Amino acid sequence: MKNSEIFDKARELGELIKNSEAKKRAEETSERLAADKEASALIDRYNSIREQKYEELTKGQPTPEDAKNANEYIQAEFEKIAGNPVIKDYLEAAREYEMLLSQMDSILKHFIVGEQEQGCSGSCEGCSGCR
C-alpha cells in the first residue's frame, strides 16, 4: 500500500470524526458555555480558587495532609460548578468526544501493533459489537 493511500484514509477518518455527533455536541456545548455569563463566572471562580491553593502549596513545605486537604477542597469546588446545567452538559460532551478519540486511538494501535490498550468503554454507541 502506498503512503498516499494511507494519507487518504487518514483524511477520510478525520472527516468522519469532524462530522461526528460527538464532535458537533462538544462544539455546541462549548459555544453555549462561552456565552453563559453565570457558567463563565463559576469557572473563573473555580480557576481562581485552584490557582490560590496551588500557590499556597508551592510557597512552603506542604505536608501530605496539606496536599490532601487542598485536593479535597478543589474537588469539592469542582463538584459545585459541575452542578450547573451548562457546565454539566459541556463536561459530558467533552468527555464523550475525548472517549471517541481515545477509542479510535486504541483501535488504530490494535491494528498496527496487534494489541488494544483498553477494553470496552462501556458505551456501545458507535460500536460494531463485541468480539
3D architecture notes:
By secondary structure, the chain is mostly helical. It has a single domain (3-113), classed as YheA/YmcA-like (YheA-like fold), CATH 1.20.1500. 78% of the residues lie in helices and 0% in strands. It has helices spanning 3-18, 21-35, 37-59, 64-82, 85-113. α2 runs antiparallel to α5 (85-113) and α3 (37-59) packs antiparallel against α4. The longest helix is centred in the last third of the chain and has 29 residues, at 85-113. It is flat, with a radius of gyration of 20 Å. The chain starts with a helix and ends in an 18-residue tail after the last helix. The relative contact order is 0.12. InterPro entries: Com_YlbF, YheA/YmcA-like_dom_sf. Pfam families: Com_YlbF (PF06133). This is YlbF family regulator.
Which keywords apply here?
about 130 residues; 5 helices; mainly alpha; flat; Com_YlbF; YheA-like fold; YheA/YmcA-like_dom_sf
Instruction: Give the low-confidence spans.
Output: none
Structural class: mainly alpha
Main beta sheet = none
Rg for CA atoms: 20 Å
Lay out the secondary structure.
Elements: H1 3-18, H2 21-35, H3 37-59, H4 64-82, H5 85-113
Helix pairs in contact: 2-5, 3-4
Pfam families: Com_YlbF (PF06133)
Organism: Candidatus Monoglobus merdigallinarum
InterPro entries: Com_YlbF, YheA/YmcA-like_dom_sf
Q: Could you give a short description of this structure?
A:
The protein has five helices and no strands. With 131 residues, the chain is mainly α. It has a single domain, classed as YheA/YmcA-like (YheA-like fold), CATH 1.20.1500.10.
